[in-house]
What does this fold into?
Amino acid sequence: MSTFHATAVAAAIAGKLPFGYPVIPSPSTDPGASGTAVVVAFTGAPGARIAVQVTDPAELQDGSATAPLADRLHPVLEAAAAVLGPGTLGEAEEVSALEAFTASGTQVFDLVSADGAVVARTAVRIDDERGATSPASPQRLSRIASVEMDLVVEIGRTRMPVRDVLSLEPGRVVELDRAAGSPADIKLNGRLIGHGTVVVADGDFAVRVERILDVAASA
It folds into this structure.
């Protein structure tokens, strides 16, 4: 399964959905779903099955409130398919969201507003492994060159009871689950893609990339 392609599709959907505010895709921790979702098949290299579920369609600002949801989401699905390269987009239809979001090989993303609310969800299944694992051409990469993603460097984690969190104050030392000098995790849209060393560059913190993981193979 290609994490790269699935993440790019989710980012394209997030950027095209006609909300009156920006939304950001984030890998979902809830693979289930209720209600219905709009699903479309894309035939290409790679091929894909893409599903979109909008929490409240009334929030879509597309001027087509009375049109079928599948028609309203057609431009969104076209934008999602465009990042995969040449191919044919099938007819969109509404199906059981449970079926679309729990199918084998599907990656699920929550589309989150600035206040943390999940306003939509998308499920992406990349079907053509040959296209997913082969090197992407410069022409295909140019289609997603302007898509913004969150890159986070994580030096460690810890778990704390609520009472300890409430007692935090300046000067308190919180021990993390990683030894000093250990490489930091580099995460793209919440998914681990590599490891690196935290350094200082021109007075700012930076990360020196030490290793990039084969995310397509490890997903």
In short: Confidence is low (pLDDT under 50) at residues 129-135. Residues 64 and 134 are 39 Å apart (CA to CA). The longest helix spans residues 3-16.
